[in-house]
Amino acid sequence: MAAEKIPRFYFSLRSPYSWLAYRELLDQYPDVAAAVEWRPFFEPDRESERMLTERGGSFPYAAMSRAKHLYVLQDVGRIAKERGVDLVWPVDKDPVWEIPHLAYLVALRGGQGPEFIAAAYRARWEEGRNICDRSVIAGIGAGLGLDPAEFAGASDDPRLRAEGVRLLLDIDRDGVFGVPFFVHGFSRFWGLDRLPGFAAHLRARTAPARGLPEPVAGAVGAGKRATDDGHAGGCG
């Protein structure tokens, strides 16, 4: 399958809508979850932003207004209650999102990408823990049987920084402006409420002739731009 035709799921460990989409994807659409390429979406810190700009890229981000923030708190709480999901709101203090998202690349390299995502989402949204705390990320790494120091120091690794910038460039090229975001060819689906449509779209275009495409091994990265930070069902 051509790279531009590989279905992709852009997820963020920061976003509650992405967390809810992740749960729904695994619970209701496991065939789709197995077929998509999972790609992390994260807001760059100053160093990553500098590197991104030097390579001609940009990150589509607009700060969320207070009114919108309050709405998201209400909306996510409502959705979680409807789904019978226990939610614990974390408190972010000067977060650096490279810390958990580049640690995901370490887990992916160690064959534990899905397990890391599950553990990080659980820590953040079910336990209210700060996943930008290096000790929390180190603990997740240790729980996966991998080197906790590699997880804690992922954002300091120049190679992982470079890989993160490449992923940010892909986000720019793929026109991703918020999460959860689903891409297949020229088709784009943004938001938790678009997941059923994406699943139907993908299934209709891959079945019955050959079924869904095989999942991409070691799935991260290939891929223009828009600007918004989110809405009910999707956020930046």
Automatic annotation (TrEMBL):
Record's protein name: 2-hydroxychromene-2-carboxylate isomerase
Enzyme class: isomerase
Keyword Repeat: no
UniProt record similarity statement: Belongs to the GST superfamily. NadH family.
UniProt keyword Glycosyltransferase, yes or no: no
Known catalytic reactions: 2-hydroxychromene-2-carboxylate = (3E)-4-(2-hydroxyphenyl)-2-oxobut-3-enoate
SUPFAM superfamilies: Thioredoxin-like
